[in-house]
């Protein structure tokens, strides 16, 4: 039996909304980073789901790219969080409001 | 014999060389450049006399194009420089170089011996002036004439402002240039109009604009010209003539642009003698003479010239009556005398005008140089009421000055009598034949004769007669030979120069003895240059298509006697009022009239008001409009952009969450829009 | 390849000067700038005039055309070219550029005392761009140079300028850049309107196609509307550069804040870009529109003359006076151009050169006075003639040149323009417009004489605490060179006027040319 495409999409949308919710309401940068990861993975689910549906591997390749991108993003994101922590003694994203400090 | 015309160009170019030389090396030259100037003007005088001699012996009139200013590429008007040396120009060249020569000599005493500084500048400007004036005189076209007309204005500016460290001279220089520039504006419009109308500005030759205009009007010829604004041909000619007249009125200090000349007396006195009496001021009148064939075509223009001239002659004479400074009297007298020349030209008296120009140049230069000698003797005090009794202390100056005064007042047999009589006679002759405006001019002129004699001898009595009224006058500074020599030369000429045209007694000596008239009629002026002859001018004047003047033949003796009687009345008045050792200032009895005259009818104030009361506020208003209006719009555009930018900047809070919210809302909005547009609901 | 050589050399010298030490930058830049100067003079000597570069039968000197690349729009192809060459209009302006640059560089030795290598490098960069503007014949290439002029100019004002330099520099940049945008739109609407009719952006080809009436419709506008639309956009774009009233307000600010040598370049050459472009685009490519609206254009010219002169009359700052009189003088150029008569257009082009020299001279002399007194306000000084006789002599000579004293180039230029516009058959009531513009010569005399009397003459006094002495020789020398050129051109305008006439006459009204009446004037 195959899982219908709609279910994947519902899952993807739910994960995406969770991530979006995290971004909109959280102040901690770590939560932020996690929320972004959720949203990225929601996109990945979509890609893979459509790939399966259409029998076309392009989507899966893109999902792989997405994973690599997410990894790189985490690396940079953690770096930024460390710098934030060093400068503000916390990791509240609403404190850093200027481009330069 | 060497043909003199091989080096006529040098008449003007040698003073130009002197200018360059003095400008570059003046400080190291003997007498700071005076010698160079004297040599150059002496040379010009010699060549000019040679030219006169050559023409008198029946030589050909010289007319050559020498230099292409703008070639015009075969489609535009060609602009050339050329020389035209006919009897009129030759006479004028001689006058200019003679006076320039004598003034250079006089300057040795007036400037060098007084230890003035800046002599290099002085002599350089003087040489430049001589060059420009001579070049103006022998210009063969109107554009070239205009160019040198402007250059003499520059020299006048430089020389009036010679003592630039004081406040008066720079201001006077500015005024002189500005007022004449106002006149020259009309002149330049006139020049451009001539070029636009006839395609040429040449004074003489087959295609000169004067001949072309004559042919257009003359029914027996055919010529072509453009007219503008739908005016008739004669009307357009009148417009052009009046435009050019603007420059004449400015330069020759005629009402209402005469105000600069009395102020110009701030310059050194030799300069006043050369520029502001004998030559540059004559340039305007000379220009009318140069293109007299053109003016003769327009009765309206002639009437206006006569009216301006006659009125100025009288008007300026009234102001000369009350002035206390020696040079001021002479300045107003100059304005008045040029009025006579204009009157003559307007009245159809071409020969009379040339005659008066000649004699006036001599006696007015003499009077100014005499005044210069007095000023040196009085240590630069010009007030006549501080003088007196100089007669016995400086006899050479006195006698020459007296000769000049007699000539100016028009007393028989001095030069001024003959020329002024000629002016009045010719105006009267044409006026009596149904030209009431000329009669009005004649009336002004005749009245001015009385005033002229009165102010002239008031001046002579106050300066030289009676007892000395100050200590300087008791013991004046002696003057040297270099000042006496020019005085004596001009003094002799003032007495005898009338001989060239004894018009008043022509019934006794015959037409043939009127040398100037014959000279101007020019026996070699024929063919295409015939248009320059005085005979031709009379022919045009009397043609119906042109001015249409007629001559009422009256014996010249009557008007001559009348002029003499009028002059004697004035002279008598002066004797009666200012004779004796302690003359009283009678003019103060005039009361408010005197105040009016002392203030020159408040014309200067009016012109100053035009500049500072009218133009300056207008300029300030324009500036204000520019700053707040036009630039306001520009800066306003900037401000509006800045303002909007600042407002919109507010949404850039820097808080990441806000951006995320905005992004989300944007996405949702977009989805909604697509949804609505796509009809999903 | 001559033009490319000059361009490349100037660019290379600019880079070299950027890298040189500050102490030697001034002299090095001056020395290097002699090469384009000599080069352009050699071009001038070698030049034999042969018509207008934009017209089919014109003979372009030193032309070099190389195809660059072709790109395709839906329906037609355009080849971009490297296309340079000069004719009788652009060559005098090219020589003017190189002459003024060298002299301006010499005149910078005294006032520029910081970051010299950058200053001189930027000046040379600007010279390169200006040479490009006057020599390129391909629209896109030309536009690159046109815009490239702005960048060095912006920095020159913003770094070395007076107290309000930032404001002036930004105003200059934004104003002229916006104008370029407007002009660009206008030009490209023409190019698209021409469509297949052109295969390159060469001026010659565009002009030929436009004059042949091959303009189609574009963006919903018929050819007739499109012509007018493009003409107006181009005119406005260039009017800012000239500048014509009412687009002039950036000029006084820029001039007052800019250092002396930059003012010299701004007034001397940059303003001529505007009139040059007007002549090349509006009056060569769209002559019909210019003719139909001749009265309006002439009125703008007269307004610029009189209004500019009135504004100059109200100023107290010597530099502002000279700046506003530039507006006045450029108004004459417009009047001359729109006359479509030999002396009108020729005189206008001559006036571009002449005004470049005279205004350059005036800005230099004001700069020298400022170096000595540290003030430019008319009320703050008097009697300078006592202390700086040579400088004052040049000031007087330059002022009279500005007033149009005969035997100086200004008179020749103005009188030619007046003769030309008086005869114009294109402008209705041309004599009235001419007489109106001519009144400018009275006002200009008024304010210059007033300024001279107040600052140069009278008893010596200066409000500031500086020792006023004679200026150094390297300040005086460039002014004498300019004065010499002004007098030489004033006595013999035909040195350049002949070539100018040759280039502009084909543009003129055939009707005027047919009246052989005007040629009958010469004497035999």
From TrEMBL, chain A:
GO terms for molecular function: NADH dehydrogenase (quinone) (non-electrogenic) activity. It comes from the Archaea. It holds the Pfam family Oxidored_q2. The chain crosses the membrane at residues 6-25, 62-84. It is found in: Membrane. Its EC number is 1.6.5.9. HAMAP family: NDH1_NuoK. This is NADH-quinone oxidoreductase subunit NuoK. It comes from Halovenus rubra. The lineage of its organism: Archaea, Methanobacteriati, Methanobacteriota, Stenosarchaea group, Halobacteria. The gene is nuoK.
TrEMBL record, chain B:
It is a multi-pass membrane protein. Residues 77-123 form the NADH-Ubiquinone oxidoreductase (complex I) chain 5 N-terminal domain. InterPro entries: NADHpl_OxRdtase_5_subgr (IPR018393), ND/Mrp_TM (IPR001750), NU5C-like (IPR003945), Proton_antipo_N (IPR001516). The chain crosses the membrane at residues 6-26, 33-53, 88-110, 122-139, 145-164, 185-205, 225-250, 271-289, 301-322, 329-355, 361-378, 398-419, 439-464, 485-505, 557-578, 656-680. Keywords: Membrane, Transmembrane, Transmembrane helix. It is found in: Membrane. Residues 139-430 form the NADH:quinone oxidoreductase/Mrp antiporter transmembrane domain. One of its GO terms (cellular component) is membrane. This is NADH-quinone oxidoreductase subunit L. It comes from Halovenus rubra. The lineage of its organism: Archaea, Methanobacteriati, Methanobacteriota, Stenosarchaea group, Halobacteria.
UniProtKB/TrEMBL annotation, chain C:
The chain crosses the membrane at residues 89-107, 119-137, 143-160, 172-191, 225-244, 264-283, 295-315, 321-340, 352-372, 392-420, 432-452. One of its GO terms (cellular component) is membrane. The keyword Transmembrane helix applies. Residues 138-428 form the NADH:quinone oxidoreductase/Mrp antiporter transmembrane domain. Keywords: Membrane, Transmembrane, Transmembrane helix. It is a multi-pass membrane protein. Its main location: membrane. It is found in: Membrane. InterPro entries: NADH_Q_OxRdtase_chainM/4, NADH_UbQ_OxRdtase, ND/Mrp_TM. Belongs to the complex I subunit 4 family. This is NuoM family protein. It comes from Halovenus rubra.
């Amino acid at each position: 039996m195959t899982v219908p495409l709609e279910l994947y999409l519902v899952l993807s949308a739910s994960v995406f909304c969770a991530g979006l919710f995290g971004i909109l309401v959280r102040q901690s940068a770590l939560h932020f980073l996690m929320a972004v990861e959720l949203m990225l993975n929601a996109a990945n689910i979509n890609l893979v789901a459509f790939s399966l549906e259409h029998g076309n591997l392009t989507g899966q390749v893109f999902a792989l790219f997405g994973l690599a991108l997410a990894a790189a993003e985490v690396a940079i994101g953690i770096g930024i969080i460390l710098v934030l922590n060093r400068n503000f003694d916390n990791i509240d994203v609403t404190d850093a409001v200027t481009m330069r400090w | 014999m060497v043909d003199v015309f091989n080096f006529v160009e040098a008449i003007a170019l040698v003073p130009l060389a002197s200018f360059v030389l003095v400008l570059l090396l003046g400080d190291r030259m003997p007498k700071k450049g005076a010698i160079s100037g004297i040599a150059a003007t002496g040379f010009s005088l010699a060549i000019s006399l040679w030219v006169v001699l050559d023409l008198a012996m029946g030589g050909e009139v010289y007319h050559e194009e020498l230099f292409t200013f703008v070639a015009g590429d075969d489609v535009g008007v060609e602009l050339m420089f050329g020389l035209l040396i006919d009897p009129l120009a030759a006479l004028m060249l001689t006058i200019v170089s003679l006076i320039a020569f004598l003034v250079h000599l006089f300057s040795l005493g007036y400037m060098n011996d007084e230890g003035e500084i800046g002599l290099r500048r002085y002599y350089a400007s003087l040489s430049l002036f001589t060059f420009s004036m001579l070049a103006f005189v022998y210009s063969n076209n109107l554009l070239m004439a205009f160019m040198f007309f402007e250059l003499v204005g520059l020299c006048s500016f430089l020389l009036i402002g010679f003592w630039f460290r004081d406040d008066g001279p720079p201001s006077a220089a500015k005024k002189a240039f500005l007022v004449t520039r106002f006149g020259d504006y009309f002149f330049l419009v006139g020049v451009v109009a001539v070029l636009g109308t006839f395609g040429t500005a040449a004074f003489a030759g087959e295609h000169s604009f004067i001949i072309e205009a004559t042919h257009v009007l003359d029914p027996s010829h055919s010529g072509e010209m453009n007219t503008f604004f739908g005016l008739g041909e004669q009307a357009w000619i009148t417009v052009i003539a009046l435009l050019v007249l603007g420059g004449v009125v400015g330069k020759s200090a005629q009402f209402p642009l005469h105000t600069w000349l009395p102020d110009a007396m701030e310059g050194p006195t030799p300069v006043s003698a050369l520029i502001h009496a004998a030559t540059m001021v004559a340039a305007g009148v000379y220009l009318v003479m140069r293109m007299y064939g053109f003016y003769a075509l327009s009765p309206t223009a002639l009437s206006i010239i006569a009216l301006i001239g006659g009125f100025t002659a009288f008007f300026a004479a009234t102001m000369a009556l009350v002035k206390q400074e020696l040079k001021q009297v002479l300045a107003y007298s100059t304005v008045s005398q040029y009025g006579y020349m204009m009157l003559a030209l307007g009245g159809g008296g071409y020969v009379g005008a040339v005659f008066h120009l000649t004699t006036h140049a001599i006696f007015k230069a003499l009077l100014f140089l005499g005044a210069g000698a007095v000023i040196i003797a009085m240590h630069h005090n010009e007030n006549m009421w501080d003088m007196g009794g100089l007669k016995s202390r400086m006899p050479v100056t006195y006698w020459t000055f007296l000769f000049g005064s007699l000539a100016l007042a028009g007393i028989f047999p001095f030069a001024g009598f003959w020329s002024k009589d000629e002016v009045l006679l010719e105006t009267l002759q044409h006026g009596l034949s149904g030209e009431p405006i000329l009669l009005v001019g004649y009336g002004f002129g005749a009245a001015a004769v009385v005033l002229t004699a009165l102010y002239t001898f008031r001046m002579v009595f106050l300066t030289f007669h009676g007892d000395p009224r100050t200590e300087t006058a008791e013991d004046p500074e002696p003057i040297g030979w270099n000042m006496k020599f020019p005085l004596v030369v001009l003094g002799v000429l003032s007495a005898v120069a009338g001989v060239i045209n004894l018009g008043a007694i022509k019934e006794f000596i015959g037409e043939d003895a009127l040398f100037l008239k014959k000279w101007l009629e020019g026996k070699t002026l024929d063919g295409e240059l015939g248009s320059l002859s005085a005979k031709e001018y009379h022919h045009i004047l009397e043609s119906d298509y042109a001015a249409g003047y007629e001559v009422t033949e009256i014996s010249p003796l009557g008007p001559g006697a009348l002029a003499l009687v009028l002059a004697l009345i004035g002279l008598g008045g002066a004797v009666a009022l200012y004779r004796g050792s302690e003359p009283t200032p009678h003019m103060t009895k005039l009361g408010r009239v005197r105040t009016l005259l002392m203030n020159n009818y408040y014309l200067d104030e009016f012109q100053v008001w035009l500049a500072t009361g009218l133009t300056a506020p207008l300029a300030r208003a324009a500036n204000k409009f520019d700053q707040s209006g036009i630039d306001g719009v520009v800066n306003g555009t900037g401000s509006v952009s800045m303002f909007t930018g600042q407002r919109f900047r507010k949404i850039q809070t820097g808080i990441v969450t806000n951006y995320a919210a905005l992004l989300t809302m944007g996405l949702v909005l977009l989805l909604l829009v697509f949804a609505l547009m796509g009809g999903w609901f | 390849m001559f033009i490319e050589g000059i361009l490349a050399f100037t660019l290379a010298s600019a880079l070299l000067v950027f890298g040189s030490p500050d102490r030697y930058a001034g002299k090095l830049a001056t020395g290097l700038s002699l090469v384009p100067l000599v080069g352009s003079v050699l071009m001038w000597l070698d030049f034999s005039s042969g018509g207008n570069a934009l017209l089919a039968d014109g003979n372009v000197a030193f032309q070099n055309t190389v195809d660059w690349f072709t790109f395709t729009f839906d329906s037609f192809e355009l080849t971009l070219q490297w296309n340079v060459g000069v004719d009788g209009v652009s060559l005098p302006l090219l020589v003017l550029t190189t002459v003024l640059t060298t002299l301006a560089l010499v005149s910078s030795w005294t006032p520029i005392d910081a970051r010299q290598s950058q200053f001189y490098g930027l000046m040379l960069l600007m010279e390169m761009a200006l040479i490009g503007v006057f020599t390129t014949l391909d629209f896109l290439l030309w536009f690159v140079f046109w815009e490239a002029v702005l960048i060095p100019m912006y920095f020159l004002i913003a770094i070395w300028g007076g107290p309000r330099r930032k404001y002036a520099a930004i105003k200059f940049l934004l104003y002229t850049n916006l104008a370029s945008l407007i002009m660009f739109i206008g030009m490209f609407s023409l190019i698209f309107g021409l469509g297949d009719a052109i295969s390159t952006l060469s001026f010659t080809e565009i002009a030929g196609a436009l004059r042949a009436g091959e303009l189609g419709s574009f963006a919903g506008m018929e050819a007739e509307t499109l012509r007018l639309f493009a003409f107006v956009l181009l005119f406005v774009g260039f009017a800012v550069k000239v500048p014509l009233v009412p687009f002039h307000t950036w000029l006084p600010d820029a001039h007052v804040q800019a250092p002396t040598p930059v003012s010299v370049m701004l007034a001397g050459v940059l303003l001529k870009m505007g009139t040059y472009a007007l002549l090349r685009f509006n009056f060569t490519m769209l002559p019909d529109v210019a003719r139909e609206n001749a009265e309006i254009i002439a009125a703008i010219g007269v307004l610029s003359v009189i209004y500019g002169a009135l504004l100059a009359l109200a100023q107290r700052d010597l530099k502002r006076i000279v700046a506003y009189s530039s507006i006045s003088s450029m108004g004459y150029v417009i009047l001359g151009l729109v006359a479509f008569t030999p002396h009108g257009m020729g005189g206008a082009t001559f006036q571009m050169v002449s005004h470049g020299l005279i205004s350059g001279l005036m800005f230099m002399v004001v700069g020298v006075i400022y170096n000595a007194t540290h003030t430019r306000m008319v009320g703050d000084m008097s009697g300078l003639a006592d202390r700086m006789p040579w400088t004052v002599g040049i000031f007087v000579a330059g002022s009279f040149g500005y007033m149009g004293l005969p035997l100086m180039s200004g008179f020749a230029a103005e009188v030619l323009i007046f003769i030309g516009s008086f005869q114009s058959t294109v402008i209705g009531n041309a004599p009235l417009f001419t007489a109106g513009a001519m009144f400018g010569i009275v006002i200009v005399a008024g304010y210059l004489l007033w300024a001279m009397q107040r600052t140069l003459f009278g008893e010596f006094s200066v409000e500031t605490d500086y020792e006023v002495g004679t200026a150094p020789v390297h300040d005086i020398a460039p002014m004498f060179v300019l004065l010499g050129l002004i007098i030489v051109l004033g006595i013999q305008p035909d040195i350049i006027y002949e070539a100018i006439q040759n280039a502009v006459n084909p543009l003129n009204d055939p009707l005027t040319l047919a009246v052989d009446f005007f040629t009958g004037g010469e004497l035999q």
